[in-house]
Amino acid sequence: MVTPPLEDLLARIAAGDRKCCADLYDRASAKLFGVILRILQDRALAEDVLQECFVTIWQKAESFDTTRGSAVAWMSTIARNRAIDVKRAAKPASRSVEIGEVVEDDAALIERMPDIAEAQALRHCLKGLDEEDRQMVVMAYVAGYSREELASRHGRPVGTIKVRLHRALAGLRSCLGDRR
After folding, report:
1. Amino acid 179: pLDDT
2. Is 106 helix (H, G, I), strand (E, B) or coil?
3. Cα–Cα distance between 180 and 52 in angstroms, integer?
């Protein structure tokens, strides 16, 4: 039996075929759980957040657009954002995470990429960024640091952090677009 692509399952769910929900969960839950667990570092909480994410995915399946990215990327973004929201809501007043713990050879970020070619392209493009910009991108989009936390860590105004992140992401988009 040929398994349908995740994009097809999302389209069928959006069309009202709820029988596909279990198949989508079976095929994507391990990957999304990894994304969530990496951010939250709490297995029980990650399991709860995973369930919330699938409810969101099922409710918003019609908003998935294949022209904007893969199904895995779309679902991973939902999972990452929800995990970051939960972490921020529960975080203590200060945390002592060293940059070295967050930026650990790109391995954590690359492991989460569904496609080896995409992972290699991302690694190449990340290496093309200025070291400080690369750290800020990883800290913001992998570790869930807020713009304010980045500003404090890097000793720069929040506006500067936002501009640098925006430019770094534009550079990554451009680099990844050139490689396709």
Report:
1. 63
2. coil
3. 33
Cα gap 78→84, rounded to integer Å = 10
> Alpha-carbon distance 94 to 106, whole Å?
25
Query: pLDDT tens across 52-95, in order?
Result: 999 999 999 999 998 888 899 999 999 999 999 998 887 654 45
Q: Which fold has domain 1-91?
A: Rna Polymerase Sigma Factor; Chain: A (1.10.1740)
Name 113's Cβ contacts closer than 8 Å, sequence gap at least 6: 119, 122
**CA dist list (Å): 117 to 42, 63, 171:** 30, 26, 18
State the Cα–Cα distance between residues 63 and 66, nearest whole angstrom. Answer: 10
pTM higher than 0.85: no
- Record: fold of 94-180: Arc Repressor Mutant, subunit A (1.10.10)
